[in-house]
Design a protein that fits this description.
The protein is α/β, with parallel strands linked by helices. The protein has helices at 22-36, 52-60, 71-79, 94-105, 118-131, 154-165, 186-209, 225-228, 246-251, 335-339, and strands at residues 17-20, 65-68, 84-87, 110-115, 135-142, 169-177, 216-219, 234-236, 261-269, 275-278, 294-296, 303-307, 312-315, 327-332, 344-349, 352-358. It contains 10 helices and 16 strands.
């Protein structure tokens, strides 16, 4: 591997730090658009980067629709110029009031949310009527992940019917996230995707037979988006493709995207002759995955011995080659929660960390 990731001004960047490479992000966006069959087919997930600067790059590439996980992400996206924003999370409790406030605060943006049960439909209807607004909502379907949503069938049809007929609400379609589907065997993945999506197609046909309108279907995660993009009626929602990580490379080897997010870390101690301690603890790289949680470039043989809040300890027979203060670069296994650990990232241009970008939407609340 070439040293494309190395920056010339390492001494200006405190560690641990997250470096982003806008030229690589732009290339990933081009590849996403090609695989999806056009920018209008894409609704990429903002949770991966949480950055208004990346929203700007998406808009410049012709991407106009966005998917978010939090009110803060939705607010940041609208403030950055996004005009069609899905909050892919069912609002409950104070979240309903915040969603209404969001819709009223950005009248130039079309917002929509998810709902998967009749009680929340009723609560949303009351809130919309009280605020004098019309709220757009998709029915969230459970197509096998068993995390959120309602299984396609009689219950799902009933909730969609209620959504379509409740005052203050507008049924805008179906949302079917298949994040449980990932397989390095492309043929097996394709079969699983088609089997899961058949239940969505059957529900659409049933609703249309009742005279109900299903304007849109939003589906897919990162591994499945090129497959579901073959269905012309589907908007696909890849997210990790913007920055990429080595976890996705392992689960989706057929997808060809560039790593555009790199961690910079330093050796802060050498406690034994075969150990290096790096300043890359839980608070700098996502730790929900098994080790290795980061692929250390140029130190791939290292064995991970200990990981705590501020330290990553690795075993390597080459420890004596490196001094305290030595800089290493690494690719995270899971980039989305890694970004959320950093209050700012460094944008690298022409081999130099040139700008600092605030990760605005890592906050749970911006103004709303």
């Amino acid at each position: 591997m070439s040293d494309w990731f190395r920056i010339s001004n390492e001494g200006d960047v405190p560690s641990p730090a997250l470096l982003l490479y806008p030229d690589r992000i732009e290339e990933n966006l081009r590849r996403m658009i090609t695989l999806a069959g056009g920018a209008d087919r894409l609704r990429p997930h903002v949770k991966t980067h949480k950055l208004q600067q990346v929203i700007a790059l998406k808009l410049r590439a012709g991407i106009t629709k966005f998917k978010t996980a939090t009110i803060a992400e939705a607010e940041m996206t609208a403030a950055a110029g996004g005009r069609d924003v899905l909050l892919a999370y069912q609002p409950v409790g104070p979240g309903i009031r915040r969603f209404v406030e969001l819709v009223k605060a950005f009248p130039q943006t079309r917002f929509a949310g998810l709902v998967d049960n009749p009680r929340t439909v009723e609560e949303l209807s009351r809130a919309a009527q009280s605020a004098g607004v019309t709220l757009d909502f998709y029915l969230d379907l459970n197509v096998g992940m068993n995390r959120t949503g309602i299984t396609p069938g009689d219950g799902a049809a009933a909730v969609y019917r209620a959504l379509a007929t409740s005052p203050g609400l507008r049924a805008t379609g179906l949302h079917a996230y298949d994040g449980h589907l990932h397989n390095s065997d492309h043929a097996a993945l394709k079969q699983a995707v088609e089997e899961a999506f058949q239940t969505v197609t059957a529900l659409v046909q049933r609703l249309q037979a009742e005279g109900l309108v299903v304007p849109r279907i939003i589906a897919s995660g990162t591994p499945t988006f090129p497959l579901l993009a073959k269905h012309s009626e589907v908007e696909v929602g890849a997210g990790t493709t913007v920055l990429w990580d080595f976890g996705q490379t392992e689960t989706s080897p057929e997808l060809n995207f560039l790593n555009a997010a790199i961690l910079l870390t330093r050796v802060v101690s050498k406690p034994t002759p075969t150990r290096l301690t790096l300043d890359l603890g839980h608070k700098a790289v996502a730790s929900e995955m098994p080790h290795p949680r980061v692929r250390l470039l140029g130190l791939e043989e290292a064995v991970f011995a200990m990981h705590s809040e501020e330290h990553l300890v690795v075993e390597t027979p080459r420890a004596d080659e490196f001094q305290v203060g030595a800089v290493f670069y690494g690719i995270p296994r899971h980039v989305c929660p890694t970004v959320a650990l950093h209050s700012e990232v460094w944008a690298v241009r022409e081999g130099r960390a040139a700008e600092r970008w605030e990760v605005t939407a890592r906050q749970r609340r911006i103004t709303i």
